[in-house]
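LOG
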Amino acid sequence: MIQPDEAREITTKVRQVTYNCSIGGRVGVTYGFDKQKYPTYAQARLGGKNRFLPINWQHSDVATDSFSFGDENTWTIGGSSLTLGSYHNSNVLILSPGSKISYKNCKVASIKKVKG
């Protein structure tokens, strides 16, 4: 997993996505992307706090476009096809610490370009 400072440093583009989820309701996630259009971090208000979750490359696979943010000890956001060119079509799953499902079947409701 990359460190938060490194994630911020290599980020060149930022996008906000609002999801409607069948479990957990509505949630907003901000994603950072690097110059190669891969995600660097996800940021969201989860469990009453703003959480910054760097990409976890140990649980991500560029070849299959599956990505995971955070780790086993924190909140985790997982999804597929989460690149700069496809984030607006990507569904996600959000797990609380302990791997309990907090948001499930999250589909994109709206997107916003923040930077880049």
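LOG (cont.) second protein
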Amino acid sequence: MGGGSPGPGGSPVSPSGRPAAGGAPPRVLVYGYYGFRNAGDEAILAGIVRAFRKVEPGTEFVVVSGKAAETRRVHGVEAVSRNRIRRIWQEMGRADLVLAGGGSLLQDVTGLRSIPFYLGLAVMAMLRGRPVVFHAQGVGPIRRWPGRLLTRLVASRVALITVRDPESGEFLYRLGVRHPRLFVAADAALALEPGDPARGRRLLAAAGVSLPPRDSGGPLIGVSVRPWPGRGEPGWHRLAEALDGLARRTGGTVVFLPLQPPADLQVARAVAEAMAEPAAVPHADGWTYRDALDAVAACDLLVGMRYHALVFAAMAGVPPVGVSYDPKIDAFLRQVGAVTAGSVQDLDPQALVEAGLAALKGRAVEGRRLRAVTARLAADAMQAARLALDFVRRRS
């Protein structure tokens, strides 16, 4: 692992035969978990586009997506369906760079198909003669040996690796990856502007949430839950008990913020129904990633399972309290100096209440600190884009 950026250089013709730096801007094919209405992954894509175009204005993108038409509409980029393998092969031939990421593509927690699918696309690009960059990746856990072996073999052969946290780099090292161009960066979504709290309050009100007065009411406590991907039973009743405690102790309003409806909505309704205190579950089916950013920014505290709910909160200076289901939650909270209240399976309701109260008590100072930390992480996300584009220039 290392830091720093290689310098640009080379001739004016790109690997695809098109003019590169000094001529037409580079063309980048991006693949990840896009087009599935997951606000976190859509924010990653938006952050990639923003960062690359800030470094190299006019960078062209074609995105491999679950819903190509929606990706074109939301992000203003070209897109191809992830089911059209022949078309993806053709688009790889037109690209100067193939970008794998960001996000948690290389893990087997949420299913066994992710690793062979995403590594298979990387191998396709290599066979096409295109440089592959693992970009802002969160790697692991990978529990099964075939996935670990495949990841080691392919990751050792890509052109460049940037990971979003030190733990991901250490995980690759433990797998046996000894890549000379592996850099620790940050999650790509951090390259976005923070959410707009005023717009977030308007969105929540329009979605049927009765908001407390901004200055005289209790705090607005945002909650992000997701389906439980692990074994055993999740402790939803303990989470409900903790949220009841927070609402009573603060006089606050609890509002659930679904980052991937309808799955998150189902869990949110189940937890809200288990609560004794009232809690709002807004009608958020049509929300974009920007709507989710703004809704999180409108809160005074964010209790979250979703990785990017915690990211959005920290960006906006909203103190996050994590409820962990995956090591990536703990890794991000360590990056920003925030707390995890425990795992969803063994959650101590009182510990979550105390963590929430402490965060609310010092939220003005904590908000300033979080904004400063995430500004530094945003610079790291920009650096990851520079590294990838510098690699294209060096090859051109």
